[in-house]
Amino acid sequence: MSTEKKASATRTVLRLLAPYRGQLGLAGIVGLASAILSLIQPMIVGDVVGALTGKAVATGSLVLLASLFLGDMVLRLIEMYLLGRCGANMVLDTRSSVVRRLLRAPLKSHLDRQRGDLFVGAVADTDLLRGSLTMGLMNIAASIVLVVGGIALMTVIDPLLTLVTVACLGVAAVGSVAVARQVRKAMTANRDAVGRFGAALQRALVAIGTVKVSRAEDREAELVLAHAVDATKADMRGVRLQAAMTPLINLGIHGSFAVVFTFGAARIASGALDTAGFAAYLLYLFYMLTPLITLFTSFAQIQLGVAAAQRVEGLLDLPDERRERVVTEPAFASSVLEYDSVSFGYAEDRPVLKDVSFAALERGLTAVVGPSGTGKTTLFSLAAGLWQPQAGRIRLGGVDLASVDLETLRGRIGYVEQDAPVVDGTIRENLLYANPSATEEQIRRAVELAHLTDWVDGLEEGLETKVGESGAAISGGQRQRIAIARMLLLEPDVLLLDEATSQLDAEAELALRKAVAEVARDRAVVAVAHRLSTVVEADRIVVLDGGRVRAVGDHQSLLAGDDLYQRLVATQLLPEATVLTAGRNS
After folding, report:
1. C-beta neighbour count of 576 within 10 angstroms
2. Exposed end of the chain (fewer CB within 10 Å): N or C?
């Protein structure tokens, strides 16, 4: 890992741990006290051994030793509880920050990433932080205290023997650290592959109906499992590396014990070391066994946590769409929605809208028509603040929408999207989604306007009926009407309807057209229209062609003076035109 990447990883870990310094510090103090008690124990054991060798009764030393054991146990219990609580709080706080950042990120940030990858980062990577960072770091700190303290006291007992022991342990330490770094790389690759696996699986599950009718189950399974195989390969590399650490650790420890027994026996024979000192020395080495194993394995654990922390950091660094605006206090003079020389493209070299200018009526229905792909939906996405114009201005009542905070903007402009999505829950929850404080009377009125009354009243559970995930338990037309009623409950100044009648039958469409006409009496309604019935009833029609405004007028004037509009009527809307003409002639 380069120096720059190491510094970045360190900053990431410190940033995530910063709010928990106090909790970690308290756990560290308790752990330090526990380590001190552990370091005292071998000295007392040495005294007991010395007393017993001299045929004396070491009652006081035995009582002190028992007290040390008990105190060490209690302190370790408290330390583990404090670390566990800190880790749980860290996971919760991090997930809260990640979820809020994901939901507040601009739409572009979501389109640039796969949803499965975002899901893995928010769920799995945040969970890794608890064990890998809080527990891992504190285990390393406690182990270092025990190891350093043990070596210092062993040095007091016999410096020469300690020098040889440390040399054996050093070989194992160097090898373990090198392996731990490779473990981090393997685990980073594994988390990336797991993210791709989650994204591929979600892609298949979201379109499960299409997968089945297209007989694509086996093909999708192969695509999804290919990412699972990649994740397993990276995981197995990490498993092999972690497995290699055990022999390295055992080599150092077993070698140290062999050296201690061999040289210790020689030191005792020469009179340089007595039996009590040798017993205390062996106990220190034995006491260092668990801290050494913990120290070496925690390095690998920390590397895994750093990899997860860097992925979480990537989510926390997503931009916040609210902060991209320089907000001023709006003073709307009216509810006129106006596009002034607006240009926009999802890619710089592929503009969708080019110098678009028109104004919707403050009261009444404004229809937007044009060939597919000419930017009709993009117009609405810009007005709703999902994207920002690259040139020009969109104004509401004379106020530039770029200077309006999104909460205010989306309270004044209601947007019924083309696919009319609903959230998993009840009909009531979906209706109240944009305006949770709506009254029962307002709900009933919105249900009536959206022509949902007969359907809702016919359901056994009424408004408490579940719609299923993504509205799977209801029809497309019912989803569309729920989405419309949801925005009607918002009572916006401007209601944007993106092909809001595309999935309705003739009777439901007629009722909804009447509702739209009623709503349009006291507010602006702008609708992307593919049906002549909507166009004919519009007070103003805007014709888009190639991302530009081609013409503005009413149905009769455009039919008489614009050849594109004539073609749209004759091709896209001809069946309805024929029906309407026949109705007038009968």
Report:
1. 18
2. C
The token pair that represents 561 in the structure block: 């003076």
User: Over its length of 586 residues, how does the chain's per-residue pLDDT go in tens digits?
Assistant: 556 655 566 677 777 778 888 888 888 888 888 878 877 877 777 667 666 655 555 677 778 878 888 888 898 888 888 888 888 888 888 888 888 888 888 888 877 777 767 777 787 777 777 766 666 777 777 778 878 888 888 888 888 888 877 877 777 677 776 776 777 677 777 777 877 787 788 777 766 766 776 677 888 888 888 888 888 887 788 777 767 766 766 666 777 777 777 887 888 888 787 877 787 788 777 777 777 777 766 776 777 777 777 778 888 888 888 776 667 777 888 889 999 999 999 887 788 999 999 999 999 999 999 888 889 999 999 999 989 999 999 999 999 998 888 888 888 999 988 877 888 889 999 899 888 999 999 999 989 888 888 889 998 888 999 888 777 788 877 888 888 889 888 889 999 998 877 766 777 777 777 778 888 888 899 999 877 777 888 899 999 998 999 999 998 999 888 899 888 888 765 444 443 443 333 3
Q: By C-alpha distance, which of 445, 526, 523, 423 is closest to 489?
A: 445
Distance CA 330, CA 340 (A): 18
Cα-Cα-Cα-Cα torsion 476, 479, 480, 481, nearest 10 degrees, comes to 130
Distance CA 177, CA 170 (A): 11
DSSP state of 464: G
Contact by Cβ (8 Å): 71, 37: yes
Strands of the sheet with 364-369, listed across from one edge: 413-416, 494-498, 524-528, 364-369, 540-545, 548-553
**Contacting residues for 579 by C-beta, under 8 A, at least 6 apart:** none
Alpha carbon distances (Å) from 153 to 32, 147, 158, 426: 16, 10, 9, 68
Using a 10 angstrom Cβ sphere, with 0-12 exposed, 13-18 middle and 19 or more buried, the burial of residue 326 is exposed
Cβ contact 343:548 at 8 Å: no
**Residues 6+ away with beta carbon under 8 Å from 86:** 20, 23, 24, 27, 134
| Phi, psi (degrees; rounded to nearest 5) at 344 | -165, 145
By three-state DSSP, how is residue 353 classified? strand
**Phi, psi at 496, each rounded to 5°:** -100, 125
CA–CA distance, 195 with 371 (Å, rounded to integer): 38
Helix, strand, coil percent content, the chain, rounded in steps of 5: 70, 10, 20
- Report strand pairing: 399-400 vs 391-396: antiparallel
The tokens for 347 are 């890619």
Q: Rounded to whole angstroms, how far apart are CA atoms 40 and 467?
A: 66
Alpha carbon of 372 to those of 112, 238, 527, 571, 572: distances in Å? 24, 51, 15, 13, 10
Domains of the chain (ranges, CATH numbers): 3-196+239-323 (1.20.1560.10), 337-585 (3.40.50.300)
